[in-house]
Structures are given as structure tokens and as C-alpha cells.
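anyone seen this seq b4? input:
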Amino acid sequence: MQIQFLGSGDAFGSGGRFNTCLLVTTPDDRFLLDCGASAMVAINRFGVDPNAISMILLTHLHGDHFGGVPFFVLDAQLPRRRSKPLVIAGPPGTKARIAQAMEVLFPGSAGMTLRFPLETVELEAEQPRRLGAATVTPYLMEHPCGAPPYAYRIECAGKVVTFTGDTGWTDTLIRAARDADLLISECSAYDRPIPFHLDLPTLVAHREALHVRRLILTHLGPQMLAHLDALPCEYAEDGKVITV
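predicted toks r here
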């Protein structure tokens, strides 16, 4: 399994980084984890073919994690002339929120007839769901956003990857991450806690309990970016590619 960080920044693009968007490539599939507002810019910057992406898996419904979906859909409909089916999966409320976002950003777009099949799947917490080549299990996190925020445990190609989405600390993360080959964790703050987000001291304190083989930090805020040389673990960069 290969993962490319198309966007590793916070909601405000601190340090000039793109909003959260990860491209997962397996022998049989390609899908996105989150699709923040800047996703299409990042997709084009890094030469990714969006028509090869079969699914967008959304952790939660804040704009820096799902705001790129209207642009992705319209890009597929108009210049790309997509024919391949697309699945958008996320927490309960995903279908309505996407329709609302499309109508606000591009009036009339929510009701247009698409040239490609689009399916929206709403996932229930701790109910595994087979989506393409992956088995996805959502875990409820701590991050108010008008709908349930999820971390995802993704089993695919013989590997397990857990992605926290955005969240404050919750012991549920221990279950979501247990024995994963990789934990991709948001870490917005270096030493000053931010409500409903993770900070470095909290992650370090729980590192052993998480029991993961590899940890990569993302969603980096200004504090984190100012201390990259002092971080005790691996961190994401826009464009960075890893193999699990």
C-alpha cells in the first residue's frame, strides 16, 4: 500500500500547506482519505489523475476535510468527462452536507444529471464496511462538526492503517489504532493544547498505549511547523510518499 500526502496542513493552510487530503494506492484501487478545500489544487500540483480515484472517504464534515468535494465532482463532470463510478463515504449526514455545499458554491449543481454514477455511503460507528478493496471501520472521535467525526481503521492489501481525522484525545483511539502498521495522526499543536485537537505532549504520553508500528503526524499548525527539527517522530509533508 502506498500513501501520498497531497495535503498535510491545518484548516488555515499554515506554512503554505494544502488542506488534508491523502491518496491511498493499492494493487487494485486508488482512493482519497479526506478531500479538503484545496484538494483539486494539490491533485493537479502532484500530477494525480482524479479519474483513477474510485472513492473519497471523509472523516468529518469540516471544510478543510470535505470542502474539495464539489470541485472534484464538477471537475469529473466537465473537463474530465468521467465515466467511472465514484463512491463518497463518510459519517451520517454526508449526502445532505455535500448537496448543501455544492448548491452554495455552484447554484444549480446539486440537481444536475451526472455523466458518471455517484454513490454516497454513510457509515455507522464501529460497523466494518467493505468499500472497494478496503475494509473500513469508523470510530467516533471528539471534534464538533455538526455530524459524527470519525477515525478510520482501514484494512487493505494485508496492511492496517488508522487515520485519526481531527480529534481531541479519546481512549477510543487506542482501539482504533491497536496493532496497526501505521497510524496517521493529526497533531495541530506543539505544546499549547487546542480544544478538540491533538497536541504533541498528549500523543507522546499515549504513544505506548497506541501500540502501532509507525506513527506519522499531519494537520500541522504553526506551533508544529516552528518546531519540526525538534519532533520526536515522523511527520508529513505535502507530496510525501510512503509505503506501508
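The longest strand covers residues 134-140. The two ends are 5 Å apart (CA to CA). kinda curious what u guys think
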